[in-house]
Design goal:
The chain is α+β, with helices and mostly antiparallel strands and 389 residues long. The chain has eleven helices and ten strands. Strand 2 and strand 3 form a beta hairpin.
Amino acid sequence: MLSLPKKSLLPFTEDHEKFRKEFGEFLDKEIVPHYMEFEKNCCVGKETFKKFGEHGYGCMWLDKKYGGQERDMLYSIVYGEELNRRGLNGVLTRLSSDTVAPYVYHHGTEAQKEKWLPKVASGDCCMVICMTEKDHGSDLANIETSAVKNKNGDYVVNGGKIYISNGMVADLAIVAVRTDPKAEKPHKGISLLLMPTDAPGFERRLLNKIGLKSQDTSEYIFNNVVVPKENLLGEENRGFYYLMEHLQKERLMGSWGTLGMAEYAFELAVQRAKERKVAGQLLGSYQHWQYELAKAAIELDQARSYVEHLTMLYMAGENISTQVSIAKYATAELSFKVSDLGVQIWGGEGILRDNAIARQFVDTRHYRLMAGTSEVQLGIVAKALGLGK
C-alpha cells in the first residue's frame, strides 16, 4: 500500500481480518478477471449476484432464519473496502443486500420477509430502490408517480423513475409512489410498493453514462402496472419517513465507498509519481508533486478519521443525520479531486479508458450526484446552522 499507514478507530477483530482475506481472494478469482467485460457489457449480470450469494456474501447482516449470517456492520465495511481497493466501482451487489433489503426487513410483513429476503441473500433476487424522477431530482417530497386503488383494493401505478442502480438486472423494485395527492403536505402522501420487474406494463431502458459503465443504471416506466395490495411496504402514506430513516445509513456507507475510491485513486497517483520520468527525473522528485500528493494524503487521512468516527457513533445508536451529509459531501468531492490529480500525474495515459485512473475519474464524478447531490448535502448542513427556511 502506498498511502499513509491506516490506524483504525474501529474494533476490527481477527474474524474481520480473516473475512477480509477470504473475500479478497474471492474477488481476485471470480470478479476481477471479468471486470472489463462487465464494463463493455454495461452490466455485471445476474450471475454475479448469484456468485456472491453462493459464497455467503449476500445479506451478511440478516437473521439466519432468512438466510443471513447475523454479522455486524464492520463486515460490510470490509466488503466495500476490498471492492474499492481493486477499482471494482460498478459492482454494487451490496446495494441490493445492504441498502435495499433492510427496507423489507424493518417495514415488511412476515410474509414479505419470508418471500423475498432469502432470495436476496442467496443472490437469486436483486432488489432496487426507486425514488428519483426526471422533473424532481433529489426533491423526493414532490414525486408524481401515482398509485390509485382499483375496485379490488390493488394499486394501479403510472409514471416513471430514473437513475436506478442495478436497474436492468433487478427482480424486485421498491417504488416510492404518491397514494394521497390531497395530503396536507406533499411528503405525507407517499407510500412504498414492492413491484416485481416482470409485471405487465413495466418497462425499463439502460442509460448511457460517462462512467460506472459496468453499473446498469436505468430508467423505469410504469403504464397501469397493477401492484397487489399485499405488496404495500409498511403503512400507507408513511413512505417518505421510511426513506429518510434509511438515508442516514445509505449516506454513511456511501461515504465509505467514495472514501475507498479516493484512496485507490491516490494509490494509482503515488505509484505513477514513482515511475514516470519528466525531463530525466522521476515525477515524484519534483517538489510541486510531492506537495500535491502530501496534501491529498492529509485530506484522505482526515476524511477516514471522520468517517470512522461517525461509524462508531452510528453503531452506538446515535443520530448522525447532519454529520453523514458532511461526510457524504466531503468524501464525494475528495474522491473526484484526487482522481483528477491522478489523471494529471499519469499524463496522456491518464485519459485512456483501459487505465484504472481514467475509470476512477469518470466513476467518482457520479458520486457527487448519487444519494443526494453535493448541493443537497450543503443545504442540510446550512439548515442545521439555522440558515434559510
